[in-house]
What we know:
Layout: E1 4-10, E2 14-20, E3 26-32, E4 37-42, E5 50-56, H1 58-83, E6 88-93, H2 110-114, E7 117-123, E8 126-129, E9 142-147, H3 149-161
Antiparallel strand pairs: 1-2, 2-3, 3-4, 4-5, 6-9, 7-8, 7-9
Amino acid sequence: MAVRIEKIDLPGIGTRHDLVTDRGRRIGVVSHRNGERQLAIFDEDDPDAAVDAVDLTDDEADALADILGASLMLGQLAGIRDQVAGLFTEQVVLLATSPYAGGVLGDTKARTRTSTSIVAIVRGSEVIPSPTPDTPIHAGDTFVAVGTRHGLDALSRLLSDG
């Protein structure tokens, strides 16, 4: 089923975009003309009555978008296993003892050395999708990688031992 998003103009206030779930629940984002935004959950019986609203700062809105985008991306990556024989996704944690901790992703030369792709880095609650060679990497980062079983094993060894 296609996702249904409705746009509602709020004269003098801004715009509300509602996502209507498969079960008919309505979640809205109110974007005020002054740049403020709220996340709203609406009553099941009255789509104009918000049962709760959360004011979001710019940083909070960005973090929420990252979380939602990352969960979608990770779900899609997990589905790759079902679609392509021999291709896997894996999460590899960068240990403090790794020679690459504190450097940048490009230092690992992971793609060249292991034929795997690091498609995201998860750092605490932050998700860095499509990291570049200049992306700093830290002990405790979780690398989300795609590759063959052999390549992912090689990536794990590379990040551990150099």
